[in-house]
Structure formats: structure tokens, C-alpha cells
Design brief:
By secondary structure, the chain is an alpha/beta fold. Helix content is 42%, strand content 19%.
């Protein structure tokens, strides 16, 4: 690439994470064909000694890259990412979860697209969901590509795969940064950025493999999750982002999915909501 744009990596870690998976996730970001110069890890409360050991290993090896922010107590993903954004030194921020895997050319492809179109504010990609090994893909999440398609899609469903996105920091701050919203932290952010006229794009390649557990789709149910997602959707309707039709269709789909038996929900997620 003739031109380069520096970017930060933002990752949040809390005590329940798997140290082996964390090691794989960090390693995948350090294996990028275009390497970051600012790797921000938020320790969301005290971690296990195993997790601390993984982070310390990389901090010692790359002292000029890693910026570790240790929080005294667990504050949750949204507030932790808010602090993380504030600690990133570059205008572009690559989100990465602590148990996923980015292919080596992920960030180079995203930066290349940003150079092609310097009006972009959010850029993501399609995602493969896997169990245990990236060869064991359970489903593919294929997302809308262009800005107008993303805007339309966002009125009913989450238009980005969170661990695949690269974000313009100034636009994130303009939209109010991340906030606490149980299992909706990312969707909430995208909508607020869209309301600020953020320009969006999804690369139509699989750039990130998202780790899911055997009960991942089953956990996309239950009263706690349903209450949170309905509160979120009602908020979008009341402020005018959702039309009444969007609200009814989107909310009805979530009510049905959340109240289905686990095995049936698992089947439908893989066969109808994923590809």
C-alpha cells in the first residue's frame, strides 16, 4: 500500500474470558499485514492470573504498542469501550473481541477502503461464526454492503458485526460514544452514528471469525434479553428512527425468537437469520 493510515485496536477483557482464546485473538491482530501502532486493552475489573499473564506477555514483547487500562471494578462492555475509545490515540479504531479471530489482511483491506473513500465513518465486513476451530463454521452473517442499504437494514436489524468494524473516533465521540445497553451496546452506537449522518460500508468478504459456544444461539432468548431488546426498539421508535411498521415487525420477530424452545431457536438462527 502506497499510503497508510495508523489505527488503534480496541479490546475489552473481563474475568470470565478464556486465556487461550484471548491469546489467539491478540495474536491475530498482531499478525496483520498492516500492523497497529496502538493496541488498547481495557481490563474491565480484576482479571484472573491466567488472563493477566497473557496480556503481560504481549505488553513485554511490544511495549511501544500496548496501552493497558485497568479498571478497579467491572463496569460492563459499553462503559469499558467508552473508556477505551477515549484512550485510543488514532482517529481510526479497529474493534476486536477477546475471543475472536481476524484474518491477516483484515485491517489492510479496511484501511484500503478508507483510503478509497475518505468520507467513511464505519466500515465492517461479513462474519463467519465458528465453534472451537475456524474450520468448524456454524453459520455466515452476510450483511448489507452500501450506505443506503445499511441505513435501511438498521431500521430492523443490527447492520454490522461488532468485532469486524473500524470506526472513525471523532464520529463516535460526536454520537455520544458507547454507553451501557445490555447486549445492544453496538447496535445502539450504530444508530446514534447513523443519526449523525455517518457514512457506512460493509466489505463483502469474511474478514473476522466470531467464536460462538454450543449454546450461543440458545442464549439469544430469555426474559432478560427480551426486555432489553424491546426497551431498545421502543426507544428507536419513540425518537423516530423506527417507523411503527419497523417497530412492530422487528419487535414481533424478537418476541417469537426469545420465547421459542431452545432447540428450535438454535435451528432458526442458523437456517434463517444466518446463511
Amino acid at each position: 500500500m502506497e499510503k497508510k493510515i495508523n489505527y488503534s485496536v480496541l479490546m475489552s477483557v473481563y474475568y470470565k474470558e478464556n486465556p487461550e482464546w484471548l491469546d489467539i485473538a491478540i495474536k491475530s491482530m498482531l499478525a496483520q499485514t498492516f500492523l497497529t501502532n496502538d493496541f488498547v486493552i481495557i481490563k474491565d475489573g480484576p482479571l484472573t492470573s491466567e488472563l493477566d499473564s497473557v496480556i503481560s506477555k504481549y505488553q513485554r514483547k511490544y511495549p511501544d504498542i500496548f496501552n493497558i487500562v485497568a479498571l478497579e471494578k467491572n463496569v460492563g462492555l459499553g462503559p469499558a469501550l467508552k473508556i477505551g475509545v477515549e484512550n485510543c490515540k488514532n482517529e481510526w479504531i479497529a474493534r476486536m473481541d477477546s475471543d475472536d479471530y481476524s484474518i491477516p489482511t483484515r485491517c489492510e483491506k479496511e484501511i484500503k477502503k478508507i483510503i478509497e473513500d475518505n468520507t467513511l465513518d464505519i466500515i465492517g465486513s461479513n462474519i463467519a461464526e465458528f465453534i472451537d476451530d475456524i474450520k468448524n463454521v456454524q453459520a455466515y452473517r452476510i450483511l448489507p454492503e452500501k450506505n443506503d442499504e445499511i441505513y435501511k437494514y438498521a431500521r430492523r436489524r443490527n447492520p454490522f458485526g461488532h468485532p469486524s468494524v473500524m470506526l472513525r473516533k471523532s464520529k463516535v465521540i460526536e454520537a455520544g460514544n458507547y454507553r451501557e445497553y445490555y447486549l445492544c451496546e453496538d447496535y445502539d452506537m450504530w444508530i446514534r452514528m447513523i443519526e449523525k449522518k455517518a457514512k457506512c460500508y460493509n466489505i463483502q468478504d469474511i474478514l473476522v471469525y466470531m467464536r460462538v459456544s454450543n449454546d450461543f444461539y440458545k442464549r439469544r432468548g430469555g426474559i432478560k434479553y427480551l426486555k432489553s431488546i424491546l426497551k431498545f426498539k421502543k426507544e428507536q421508535y419513540l425518537k423516530g428512527f423506527y417507523s411503527l411498521k419497523d417497530f412492530i415487525i422487528s419487535s414481533s420477530a424478537h418476541i417469537i425468537m426469545c420465547l421459542l424452545p431452545n432447540k428450535l431457536r438454535d435451528f432458526l438462527y442458523k437456517k434463517t437469520l444466518r446463511k
